[in-house]
Amino acid sequence: MNASIDALEKQLKHVDASIRRRALAELAALIRQGALSLPPVREVANMHCHTFFSFNAYGHSPSSLAWLAKKEGYKLIGIVDFDTLAGVDEFLQACDLLGVRGSAGMETRVYIPEFATREINSPGEPGIFYYMGIGFAASAVPPTAAHILDRLRRRADQRNRGLIERINAFLQPVAVEYERDVLPLAPGNVTERHIVAAYLQAVARTLPDPTPFWAAKLGLETAETRALMDDLPHFKKQVRARLMKRGSVGYVPPDSGSFPTVDQVNELIDACGALPCATWLDGLSQGEQDIEELLELLIGKGVVALNIIPDRNWNIADPELRRVKVRNLYTVVDLARELDLPLNVGTEMNSFGQKRIDDFTTPALAPVRQAFLDGAYFIYGHTAAQRALGIGYRSAWAAENLPGRKDKNAFYTTLGRRLPPGSEGQAKLTQAGAGTPNQILGALS
Fold this sequence. Notes:
Elements: H1 2-11, H2 17-32, E1 42-49, H3 62-72, E2 74-82, H4 88-98, E3 101-111, E4 128-134, H5 146-171, H6 178-182, H7 192-206, H8 210-218, H9 222-229, H10 232-244, H11 262-271, E5 275-280, H12 286-289, H13 291-300, E6 305-308, H14 319-338, E7 343-345, H15 369-389, H16 396-401, H17 405-418, H18 422-432, H19 437-444
Parallel strand pairs: 1-2, 2-3, 5-6, 6-7
Antiparallel strand pairs: 3-4, 4-5
Helix pairs in contact: 1-2, 3-4, 4-18, 7-10, 8-9, 15-17, 15-18, 17-19
């Protein structure tokens, strides 16, 4: 039986969507038959997991992430992919089938002219800001906003092609071709991590011993390079840093035209009934030291939530740096509460070594555990309401029945807590109907 389950789990990561669907259906059938022993559901959440549509370090598809949550007993889970909504339908349908509380989002980068001289959360790039939409109910984009998503994809494609052209010139005689070598590695959007993998494969098939080549190109001693190559995840990070990041041969500094504005991305998010979401790094940059100014600016543009990656704010070897970052974390969580911004938190999973789930009971995170969980229930509540009845946070129903931000936050958080997971929750909401908030919550109590 274990061998069979292992095989099905492997199929969940297959690039063929039909193979993933069949594997998930078989696993769900095993659960119904009582042939699988599952752990009790734990009060934990990971609402920021990249899928293989924009690179997952462990190869997870949307279906396999939903299965991971079911298998490990996670209470809530959410996906986020760069510049694509390709995984939304698959993920939410997998959550329905398995009985998992799920949400889906998209991440991109934007230009904020008001912070043009201040670095925010994109290291070394003043004015550039990682930004998100969360709580999408479907992969489809209304025709009025489809051009915005297309433009995001085209910009990303142009950046990738330019990056490869510059690196090819540096790595001669080794070179990669975008269509032949890179696109097959990416079921969805191509990222720098896909490009790194393509270069490693190209060097391996071109040279009998890649070590001297990489030592020369990376400016390292041969012995040091060989030791690095024995730790492949670490080596990939080194290659990416030396070929693609600031100061490298492949890097070109972005300018005001490199990325869309917040308003342009919000037009897409709003058209889909999703929620604009700011993001937080660690409070060390000049822009994040002015976080209250930044968040108030973004709230004025439509932001209703804030994303945090907890692990990078406390799991740090240097005790003094750890103290500073934990203090900054508590400060921004308090500020988010004052500004009525629910929190979307998670581990990303788009880099080797990142956790599958945060431990909210660790001493550093225990004081903010409730805020993290409340945010997870909030986004699940909005997602479920939008999917079942079209009454999510940005709907006309919400504007009429929940006039204030605090009112909306309280309703969708309570709804998320009361609503069963999966298709059962969707059915209960549909049965309850779009009455008043009290009528909906009363029907679920």
